[in-house]
């Protein structure tokens, strides 16, 4: 697949002297959902803001659909819709006026049918004449998305799209993002909610202290970096791990009634067969077992911790 966004050697030092981004290279593929994960202050908003032309880069280049964001700003910006974290200024406008205005800002021809379709897709049609200030928080977020989509962008940035929204609205937003992707829109979202990245993303980039430390397909990230655990529920609790089992990666859990074996599922030899043989020889019997793959959250915490 060809990249729709190419970022090369991107760096940003703010006027305070703070270096928020350090030589970031990243390609976003056409039609994917890309999640950018990172702790507070990692540089997510700075990165998005540069691509959207809100913040000037200190070094490096960015192209969107082949257009350089500096030398060919208008063409690059026209391809992008941005759903910011912050809410509105146009409280006294109606939903319809606000969304139509956003379209006009990009010099697009008036197209009432398109605005109508966008509002309908976002379940905002009934609210088209309502003033924005009368809407609930969830509805306001939908309006932000409608405004970002009003000029028919090919790339949509969502900065923390579901921060502070309830579970139901979060699910609605996820469904909506998927629907948008089906129409060929490329989606880049930043999120603190690992669950969101796990649920939504095709690929995940992890940013920490201004550097992209990992970019992987979600499934690869989970198998490559994830570890598996084998939990054995013991017939008799143990007070300590028998010395004959010291060669295995074991821990005692659940007050001695469980043995937890951690292994790398990618390796040819997981060591499970040897472990089971040694357990039998040590007279340790179990009544049940289960395996668990580490979650994206555990992987993320490990990655970011290593970086500190
Ligand atoms: N205009 C600015 N001037 C100086 N420093 C800034 C400016 N904007 C952001 N920073 C700093 O740059 C760093 C990265 O900020 P950024 O907003 O990009 O992080 P983030 O990953 O989006 O974090 P969050 O999830 O908290 O929004 C932070 O330490 C922030 O304080």
Automatic annotation (TrEMBL):
Could you list this entry's UniProt keywords, alphabetically sorted. ATP-binding, Nucleotide-binding, Transport
Gene3D superfamilies noted in UniProt: P-loop containing nucleotide triphosphate hydrolases (3.40.50.300)
The UniProt family comment states:
Belongs to the ABC transporter superfamily.
Q: Which SUPFAM superfamilies match?
A: P-loop containing nucleoside triphosphate hydrolases
For whether the record's keyword set contains Nucleotide-binding, the answer is yes
GO molecular function terms listed in the Swiss-Prot or TrEMBL record? ATP binding; ATP hydrolysis activity
Q: Does the keyword Nucleotidyltransferase apply?
A: no
Q: Which residues form the ABC transporter domain?
A: 5-234
Q: What is this protein called?
A: ABC transporter ATP-binding protein
The record's section on PANTHER family has: ABC TRANSPORTER ATP-BINDING PROTEIN
Which InterPro entries does this chain map to?
AAA+_ATPase, ABC_transporter-like_ATP-bd, ABC_transporter-like_CS, ABC_transporter_ATP-binding, P-loop_NTPase
Write down the CDD domains for this protein, in alphabetical order.
Answer: ABC_DR_subfamily_A
